[in-house]
Amino acid sequence: MASILQFIANGLVFSSIIVLGSIGLSLVYSIADFANFAHGDTMTIGAYGALVTFGLVGGVGGTFLGLPLGFYIALVVGMGLAAVVAVITHVFVYRPLSTTSIGLLITSIGVAFVYRAGLQAIFGTDFRNYDVPRSGPLPFIQDSLGIAVTARGLAIVVLAAILVAGTHALLQYTTLGRKMRAMADNPDLARVSGIRTKRVILATWVIGSALAAAGGVFLGLFSQIDPRIGFDLLLIIFAAVILGGIGSVYGAMLGGFLIGMIHELTPLLKDVGIPIGIQYAPAVAFVIMVVVLLARPRGIAGELT
Amino acid sequence: MSTASLTDRIGSFSRGEQVATAGVGLLAAVLLVGVVVGWITVTYLLYLVALAGMYVLLSMGLNVQWGYGGLINFSVAAFFGVGAYGSALLTADSSPVAGGFSPVVGLVAGLLVAAVLAVIIGIPTLQLRDDYLAIASLGLAEVVRMIVLNEREITAGSAGLTGIPLFFADWPVLGSLEYPFVLYVGDTALFTMERSLLIAELNVLLVVVFIAVVYLFLRRIHLSPWGRVLRTIRTDEDLAKSLGKDTYRFKMQAFVIGSVIMALAGVFYTHLVLYLNPQDLAPVLTFYVWIAVILGGSGSDRGAIFGGFTIIALQQGTRFLNAAGTIPVDPAALRLMIVGVLIIAIVRVRQEGILPPEKELIWPGSTEGSADE
Question: Closest partner residue to B143 among A103, A286, A294, by Cβ?
Fold first, then answer.
């Protein structure tokens, strides 16, 4: 029983990262209208942006949730950097194109390579880590539930929950959020109603990329950083977005949560007699994605939003 | 042919054809100088040509799927890998399952397995919308790579397979040639040839034969009613459906044909490089082939040939620049950057590619009557 709880705790941390990635991918899918293969590398940009900033500011001040305050500065800078890069890319690469959504999809692969090549040229391919001291499992959780949860794991879950709640508030209770939902529903109708669609698209890129960058920073905190982390995670994020229903932000949250959990719960398959090892965790996610595409192409929350 | 008619012909080249001709000419000149000066050996040059031929095969395979039928297949590396592993596992000394068969058996097995895998992957994915197909096929390709990497008892895992024989190792004459090969006329040795050079030449010959067979086959089916239906599906699938065509079946056929050609490239690669590991199935191969196809011109087989050679020029050019010490950055990063910029540039500047299909779609001779008037 304790081991199941432990897997669920790990799943929560991993799900938080996937959810942050999924929201941005789904937003861009619904408003800019293409599958953005550069989204994973946007996460990587955020991770490296935070790495450099954290190296500069160090652990200034005290700590919050077990992380030095300097890390929060680094997180914000990483999110900002990814947003700036995404807006520049949109203005100079995607916007001038006169092509279909398939053309944009292919272009985004080129963009992904350019991002990754840039990071690789600057930082090399070595693994790096945030210089945050590692601590053992939190004693009060270990005593009460008998499972090991580290301070950084808890911090990732709490911070991701705050960002998700913020996104929800933005979409539901602000004018920008209403405009974004209107555009996702029907871009032409949104335009004739006087919504400045160009600005809404820019805002979409900013929000989606900043959330992705936060996911990238947490991914770096959770494991380690190298130029491939984002691209390697991209397919799992796609699986989450498709499971939730492409274009649906709330579906992406739910899909991200489920895929993250399934990914971390794969070891349990052995216990119920299915001989699939942990190394096939991503494969299980892809197979679920294909099954969902066939059985219910609109995903589990396709009609919401 | 007189000089005047030759210049007339060059003058009638489209802009893309002029660019392609100039590029090929320049590359050939550089390579020729390179061989004369001694930067590269003839053996290595032939090896590169063979490798380019492999990319040509892969590009022609993808061309059937994307160029003719509009199917976004991001699992090129998987089919390449199935062909390569299928043949290697049957022929290699170090094979954990059943080594020692003739490479011809390996070829047939590799192609068969690829065809079966294409059907298995195609059944769920070909019913999907275009962009879903892209995501799903990339995911399934990763599943194939994971299986090859993790099922050590079958594929030898990350250790890779060694001891793979040459493709013509057990052929009657070619397999039993004595090295170094010396051609005697009477008692005087006319010329001698090193083993590596002879093998390189035979490999080039082999890939040229493969390409020629595939090219003629594709040209034939492209001009057939089957090819016309496929082009209709690419342009407007609903239209094809409303004309009573079972579009799913046509797409499946294109998917299988393309995948088998990719597997053929894999089989050739196995017996060219003689070493195989799961790294060869990395997704980057898929995107190299995509560049070759969209750069050359989607739906154009001469474009695929042009694209295949461009990829080798790109890979070797960056390696060469690095060896010459002229660039301060990591060559892998530079290559990735060029690949990325190239993709963006093609979509931005010339979506139809450099050599888009023009006269290929017309039966030879069918326009001659009007042209002569």
Answer: A286
Which residues partner with A67 through β-bridges? Answer: A64
Domain count, chain B: 1
Give me the numbers of helices (H) and strands (E) for chain B, helices first please. Answer: 15, 2
Spatial contact of A29 and B135, defined as CB atoms under 8 Å apart: no
Q: Is the CB of B72 inside 8 Å of chain A's CB atoms?
A: yes
Is pLDDT of B363 > 70? no
CA distance to partner chain B, nearest, from residue A5 (Å): 28
CB-nearest to B142 from A34, A97, A235 is: A235
User: How many other CB atoms are found less than 10 A from the CB of residue A129?
Assistant: 12
CATH number for the domain that contains residue B158: 1.10.3470
**CA-based nearest residue in chain A for residue B331:** A121
Q: Is residue B176 in some structural domain?
A: yes
Enclosing domain of residue B218: 16-361
* CA nearest to A93 within chain B: B344
Asked if residue B98 is part of any domain, the answer here is: yes
Q: Is the pLDDT of residue B371 over 50?
A: no
Assigned fold of A2-295: ABC transporter involved in vitamin B12 uptake, BtuC (1.10.3470)
Report the alpha-carbon distance of residue B51 to residue B53 in Å, rounded: 5
How does pLDDT run across B292-327, given as a tens digit for each residue? 888 888 878 788 888 888 888 888 777 777 766 666
Distance from CA of B112 to the nearest CA of A (A): 24
In 3-state terms, chain B is what percent helix, strand and coil (to 5)? 70, 5, 25
Residue in A33, A48, A109, A233 to test binding to B, most B beta-carbons within 10 Å: A109
Residue B195 inside a domain? The answer is: yes
What is this model's ipTM? 0.83
Please tell me the predicted confidence (pLDDT) of residue B336: 86
Distance between CA atoms of B370 and B372, rounded to whole angstroms?
Answer: 6
In chain B, which residues have their Cβ closer than 8 Å to the Cβ of A45?
none
Task: Choose between B292 and B359: higher pLDDT.
Answer: B292
Is residue B8 a part of any domain in this protein? Answer: no
Cross-strand bridge partners of residue B161: B276
Domain positions in chain A: 2-295
- Establish how many alpha carbons lie within 13 A of residue A126's alpha carbon, considering only the half-sphere containing its beta carbon: 5
Whether A235 and chain B come into contact, CB under 8 Å, resolves to: yes
